[in-house]
Structures are given as C-alpha cells and as structure tokens.
Task: structure prediction
Amino acid sequence: MTLQLTVITLLVVMLIALWRACIGPNVFDRVLAANLFGTKTVLLIAAISYLHGSPDFLDIALVYALINYISVVGVLRITELRNEHAPGDRRG
Amino acid sequence: MMLDWVSGVLLLVGSFLLLTGALGFLRFADFYARIHACGVTETLATSCILLGLLIQSDSAVPQFKLLLILLFVLLSSPTSSHALAKAAWNAGVRPRDNRGKQPLPLPPGEH
Amino acid sequence: MELAVNIVLLSLLVTTAAALVLVRGLLASIMLTSIYGLLSASFFVIMDAVDVAFTEAAVGAGVSPLLLLLSVAVIGRHEARNAGARPLFAVLLVGITGALLIVGTLDMPAFGRADAPAHLHVAPRYLLLSGEETGIPNVVTSVLASYRAYDTLGEVIVIFTAGVAVILILASGTHRGSARPHSAPVDTKDPHTILQVVSKTMIPFMLLFAFYVQFHGDYGPGGGFQAGVIFASGIILYGLLYGLPAICRVIRPPVVELCSALGVLVYGVTGILSMLQGRPFLDYSVLADDPIRAQQIGIMVIELGVGITVASVLIVIYYAFANQFETNGN
Amino acid sequence: MDILSHFNYWVVVVLMMLGFFIVIARGNLIKKLIGLNIFQTSVFIFYISTGKVIGGSAPVLSSDIQLYSNPLPHVLILTAIVVGIATTSVGLALVLRIYRAYGSIEQDEILEQSRQ
Amino acid sequence: MISHLAVLPVLLPLVGAPACVVLRRPGAAWAFACGVAFLAFVAASHLLVQTRELGVISYALGGWAAPWGIEYRIDLLNALVLVLVSAMGMTVLLASRASVRGEVDPSRHSLFYVAYLLCLAGLLGIVATGDAFNLFVFLEISSLATYALVACGRDRRALIAAFNYLIMGTIGATFILIGIGFLYMTTGTLNMLDLAVRLPQLGESQTVFAAYAFIVVGVCLKLALFPLHLWLPGTYTQAPSIVTAFLAATATKVALYVLVRFSFSVFHLETSRLALSLEAIFITLGVVAAFAGSLVAIYATDLKRGLAWSSIAQVGYMAISVGIGTAAGLQAGLIHLFNHALMKGALFLAVAAYVLRVGGTTFRELRGIGQRMPLTTAAFVVGGLSLIGIPGTAGFISKWYLVMAAMESERWLLAFLVVASSLLTAVYIWRFIEVAYLEKPESGKASPQKPAGMLLTCTLLLALANLYFGFDTRLPVSTSAGAAANLLGARTP
Result:
C-alpha cells in the first residue's frame, strides 16, 4: 500500500516539476525542473519494478541516474562556455 | 514483519519529503529559494525511498543495484545542485525578494 | 494500478508536447524534450518494453538533448516570434493527418488484448522457441541479434552513415576528419573543481557499467547499443569537463573514426563467415558445433560490433559538434 | 470500457499531431528538429502500445511466467530509435553549417538572404 | 557461392563502404568504390539472368525461414530495378572523379565516396528486401547518405536544400513507419508475401485503408509526385552535379518501385474498393505533374533547374501508368522507369561536364556551348530527344507503350494529354539546342580545359544506351512484361 502511495506521490511531484519546466521563468529553473524530473523518474522506475516484482528494471533506473547527471553537467558547461565567449548572450 | 513496518515508514517519510520539496519548488519566489527547497529535500527523500525498497527485497542482486543507485544519487545530486546554483550566479541570476520582484541588495564585495 | 499509471503518464506526455508547442526559446524546448524522453521511457517500462526504455532513456533523455544543447551553444537560444508562421496551413495538414490516423484506429484490436492478431502470428514462435533455439532468456536480444539480425546490421549501418554524414557536412578547409584539437585547453576562469573531482571518480564506474550492460544483454535489458551509448556518455562527460583537446589527446579522432568502421566490419565479417561455409548470410550455425553455442557466440560477436560502432560514432559526432563550438568561439 | 480500449491509441495520435504541428508551423530549424523528434517518439509509443498484453510481463524468459508482452515491436523500435537519433544528428550538423553560412537559423531570414 | 547471388548486390556496397573509410586517399577511395559498384552490378545482372530462367529466388537471411526471419525475395521486378540501379550507380560513379574534384571541397573527397556507396547500398537494399520493416531501415540508410551528399554542394543554398529534404524525407519515412505499424497490428507479420496472403482475409478494414494511405503518402514524398515534390527542385539544383545525376537516375526509380510493390504485391489494389478513387487520384496528379513540371521547365533560366522540373513531369508519367493499373499500364511504367533513368543519367552527366567547363548552368553561361563541347552537347541532345520521345530513341518506346496502355483501357483523353505534354518537353529541349548551337558564346570567359575523359566517356555511353534501347527493346520490354504479369497474377493465384 505504501508503495502505491509512493508511486502516486512521485507522479504528483513529476507533474509539479513539469509545470515548473513549462513556466520557467528562468532557464535555470527549467534545467532544475528537468533534473528533478530525472531523479523522480529513477525512483519511479525503482518503485514500479518492485510493484511488478521484476528487479531487472533496476538497471534502467541506474542508467537514468547516470544520464541525468551527464545532461545537467552538459547544460551547465554549455551555458557557461557560451557566456564566456559571447558576454551577455547577445541573442537573448 | 518488523522490516515491513520499517520499510513502510521509510517510504512514507520519503514521500512526505518529496512532496514538501516539490511544493517549495512550485511556490517559492526566486531561483535560489527553489533550488534550496528541492536540492535539500531530494537527497534525504531519495535515500529514504531507496532504503525502504531495499529492505523489501530479499535477494542480493537487486539490493546491490539499489545501493549503487543510492550511492550514485548521493554523489551526483548535491554536485549538480551546487553546479546549477553556481552557473546561475555566474550567468547573472540574482536573489529576489519574497514576491520575486525586487532584486535583493548584495553583500559588499559582490557585484 | 498499472492502468492508472499508464493514463497519468500519457497525460503528462500530452502536457509536455503541448507545452513544447507553446513555449518559445530553444533551451526551454530542449529541457522539455528531455522530459519528454524520460516520460516516454517510463511509459515503455509500464508497457513491459524494458530494452526500449533503456535505449530511450539513454537516447531520448541523454544523447539527443546533449547534441541539441551543443548546437544551441554555438547558435544561441533565441527563437524568433513569428518566423515561418503558417498556422492555418499547418493546422489543416495536421488535421487531415490526425483524422486519417483516428480513422485507422477505429478498426484496431482493443489495447492490451492477448488475442490481438499481432500476438498470434509471428511473435508466439519467438516466445516459445527462442529459448531452445538460441539459449538466451531475453527474447528481445535473441530476435534482435539472431532472427532479425539483418535489420540490426541495417541499424548499425544507419548509425555509421550518420557518423560519415556528420563528418562530411561539418568538415572544413583541407582537413579531413571530425576534430582538430588545435586550440589550447579550455581553461575557464572557473574550473569547477567539485564537478571535476566527482565526475572523475564516476567515469571509471560508468565505463565499467557499460561493459556490464554489453555482456549482460542476454539475460536482462541491455546490449550493444545501450552499452555503446553509456560508454560514449562517459567519454563525453570527460570532454565536457576537461575540454575537447584533453579528450582528443586520450582518444584520438582518426582512431575513433576507424573504430566506427571496425564495428560494422566485425558485424559484416561474421555474416560473411557463414556465407563462406555455404550457409546464408548471418547464419551463426557455422561458428560452433553445438547450434545453441553457435548462436550465443554469434550474438555476442555482433553485439560487440554494435557496441563499438555506436560508441565511436557518438564520440565522433560529439567531437565534430564540439569542434564547431571551439572554432566558432575563438 | 470501450473508450478505454482505444484510449492509448487516441492519445498517441494527439502526440503525433502535436509533433507534426511543430515541424510544419515553426520557422526555427532547431525547433523543427525537436518537433520531428517528438513526432517520431510518438510513433514509437504507438508501436510499443500495440505490443502490450495486459497482465503480461517483460519478454525475458523465466520458468514462473506464463504470459509475455509481444517482443517484436520492441525489436523494431530499438532500430527505429537509432534511426531517429541518426536523423537528429545529421539534421543538427546541417543546422550548424547553415548557421555558419547564413548567420541565422530562422527560415524567414534565410529565405530572404537566399533571394538577394 | 551461386546461392548467395540474391544478397550480393546489396552486401557488397554495404560492407564495402566501411572498408572504404580506411582508404584516406580520394583516388584510392574512388577506385575501390568503383570496383565494389562494378561487382554489385555484375551480381545484379547474374541475378536478372537467373530470375529469368528460374523464376522467384528467395534467400533467408540468418537462416531463419520467412515470416520469422528476414527474407530477400527476388522476382523479375526486383531484378530489373536492381540491375538498373546498380548499373546507373556504377556509371555515374565512374564518371564522378573529375566532377567531384571540381565541385566538392577537397576535405570531403574520400568520405564522399563512402557516402555514395552507402546511398547505393541503401537503394539496392530497398529493392531487394521482402520485409516491410527492413525496407524502412534501408530507406533511412539511403536517405541519410543522400542528405550528406546533397549538402556537399558548393553553394550555401545546398545546405537549405539538404535540410528541407531531410525534414520532408523524415516525415515521409515516419509515415511509412506508421503504415507498417498499422499493418503489423492487423496481421501480425512484416513479411510482404505473408502480408499479401493475410490482408485479403481481413476484408474491409479502416486500419488497412489508413495503412495504405500513409505508406502511399510517404512513398510519394520520396517519389516527388506532385504536390509532394517541393524538396526536389532545390535538391537537384543545388546538389553536386554527380549527386544529381545519381539521384535522378536511381532514387525516384526506387521510390516508384516501392509504390508499385506495395500497391500491387501487398495491397492488391485492384480488388480493393479503393481502386477507382486511387486510379483517378494517380492519373489526375500525374497529368497535372506532367504539365506543371514541363511548363516550369520551359520558363527556367537555369538548365539544371529546368531538368529538375522535367523530372517532376516524368514522375507524373510513371504515376499515370500506375493509375491505369492494367498489365499494359504497369509495363509502360516499368519501361519508362528504365528508360528515364538512362535519359536523366545522360542529361545530368552532360550538365556535370558543363559545370566543370564553364562553371555554371544558366543559359547565359551556356551560350554557344555546342561549338566548345561538341561531343558532350551531342550526348545531351540525344538524351533530350529521348526525353521528348522522338522515334529511334528509348524515350519513344516508353511513350509508345504508355499511350497504347491508355488507349487500350479506352482513356482517349489521357492518351491525348500524354502526347500533348510531350510537345512541351520538346519546347524546353529546343530552347537549349537554340542556346547551345545558334547563339554566340560570351567572349572573354574561357576557363581552362580540365581533363574529364571518364566523364565524357560515360556520358556518351549513356547517350548510346538511349539509342540502343530505342532499337533493341527486348531487355526492358520482355522483363517488364513478365514483371507486370507477376504483379497482377499474384492477385488471382
């Protein structure tokens, strides 16, 4: 029962993160939202694999965690490099 | 039986923390407040939920994988929060007041 | 419960897609794309498609947003307000397509029914016999790498073609190849010590995990493609943090380009070996005396070929894109 | 129940149409590629939906499971995902070259420059 | 070894392409690619001979029997198109060295040939396969390679053309994917033969109707049938001339093959209730395409662009023949498919030679070219006459069969329209002849002669082929008659 509750909570949190990603207002808010979304997906997959009783899915959760981290680093490095090369981000 | 209870409590605590973090993420006024809300709760909430799941399973392989995920999240989540806040600061995002309108005065030495 | 999660995920997908239609600004769009990838991957898990979820997580939420981000880093994230707006025409065209699709769904068998025609004809044989015929529990792997191995060869060629195409398109001047590590190391004002330290400890484990995924694909979700993506992601992470020249010194562009061809050749030569012994192309039975053993060897070798090509093509593409960035910036 | 039996398909149709709309209606070349991505991913979702058997489990053979979902769509979509990422990367490479040649990635501005 | 013949034409370029990456010198890459293409052509010709003797050849890839594994299924139709595509691919490749040197950046040369081989392999794979999903995979291989080849053009507009082609091509491919998904859903199989057996058992299904519609729209995007032709003029005009010659001679032909294969082998167009409306749609679109394409071609100021529009018109004729739908109609379509590849190959190779010599293809630049390049222009004129359909050329044969097929099915107006649109073709070919022979060359702008013997030889070869197949029509006519009979015979076994 608590497992189901956890899944529902996770879905609600994902909805909130999605909402934040839509309204922004800041680019970093969106990045944060995507990151939050990613970690919640990891938990969701883990929880669902227990709900299903097939722990094979845990590999997928692990990959999500990895990929999520890489994309955050990617965003940061890239926004930053852009700031250095083009001060003030001339195109918006 | 005892373990089931522990696992249930851990899951509930984790869910509660998640929800509070998300609420903060939704409602707080500026970026730094929001990253504070979810960055801080996230680590503990994730640990609670993963531990709760770990207790539920009875074979070694999934437990090991869960531990790996936990370890990874414990490493990566604070790192990315830190880096995100730093990048936002470098990009010129500044803290704002409670309604998200006025920029707050900065401490001396910053610009 | 499963059905409820299914419905919630689908609604979230629709919300994300609608937000993508409305939102302006490329970085925001890319973040939403990444979320879309994550959501569809979760959906695939619910639909029992674990291998697909694995791949979609790595591609839809990982590689493709990363490539988009690299391009936006060169171009800028601005999106014009009314450029190319032909909403009426678009609505008309999309409306017709949608109507046709809806018409098509009307006669479809109901969702999830075990007696739908698709589940009665070809697939049952895979589920019944693939265990005996290939000795591999993961049916998706055995269909992918044995029954429909030729499709997978096509897939490897597609990714190889993408690598060739990207180099061909982005090549400049007299230099042939994906990257020119000519510039000094990108030392920024802000070297991100924390990120570098944390990532450096993680990267070896990521590469190790890639090997695990490569060889564990027979028993669970995973396989050459996923392993290649994870391996390349580890390398790309290093490149992002230490700069293109640093990574190019370790993994030299010409070598990677050759490796991308090597993977395809490993795959192709495995097939040709069977031809030389008078069996059809990609018939693994010539590889060992015991047919099941032969299948397993064949599947392992071609998955290795897939992994090599995918990893090296992704690295090549990363080099080519990042190189644009560095030459543009300097 | 009758609505539920086709609900998945209809939602997927909506997803496809949204992606398709972005491709046609937006003038920004990268946005077009994003739309194409969404369009293709939606088709993948459709395929995977057709492979699902309610009550079935993931097609990894095991002695204590009776009913599996259909593995064939999974195999096809694995290939199609690769095709999708290949197309995206080639498209992005073209966009980068276009930006180098025209200084813009908005369709209107490019067309204007081409006419001159 | 002989039993592998079915797979060799595809496999050679498919494995040859990655091997070609190793060769870093462009000359070596070119020579290697030519060798591979030649071997593929030899294999394809043997295959044609064998299918004429033995009938259908089936090859189970991976050793798994048909609906479970992937099957190559070669009948007369595939074999004919395989020979055509590999022959044109080889000829254009042989001619390409000088033109590529002139039109493509040196940094791209060696990989250019790799991409060319991949494109050829993709096209051959589409034709050879008997599996619907495998067709999609090879379609994408050829498309991705094509985008890269088109983007090699010198002008920056080539990039825009390539990007537009990428967007439309991917939409088309995704439509085909949707169609295949619908088919799989209703039948549970992907094998074309198996589909053909199972589809009639379903009766009138909306899903099958939608599947056919999506596949047809997707294929017509690739075929550039009016009004889905928008990508073609830009792509043909801006791509390097060699790529244009290759695409014009092969890619649209393969798309037509796919259309015919799906319409007649898989979907049994005649027996379906759609037949009537589809007939009307194909014939109307074909006629409009034939007239619109020719009219735009008449007013074009650039030879390459004019020929691109002419391709749209010619695709129109092929659509008409599919629309007629009788054995005679299909035969006419297949003959035209064959002959049009020869014509457009010759014409675009001549254009490549012009680009090499005078640097451009506008009519202003080409004034008096007939005196400066007599042999190339002669070849161009032969190709042009064939395009019009003058007796004694290959083009006459295909027009003749097309008009005959229209009259046989008592479509008198259609027959008249086909003849009338041919007159429009005569107008734009005459316009070029006027420019080339009767106008004085612009003085002062004489670029140095570049050695292009191979290019000239291949152009002349294709022009001669146009004449040869105008007299000795046995190969295309008998093969296509057999293929058309097979296609229609499959319906009522």
Remarks:
- The helical segments of chain A are 2-23, 27-52, 58-85.
- Chain A touches chain B through 45 residues (CB under 8 Å).
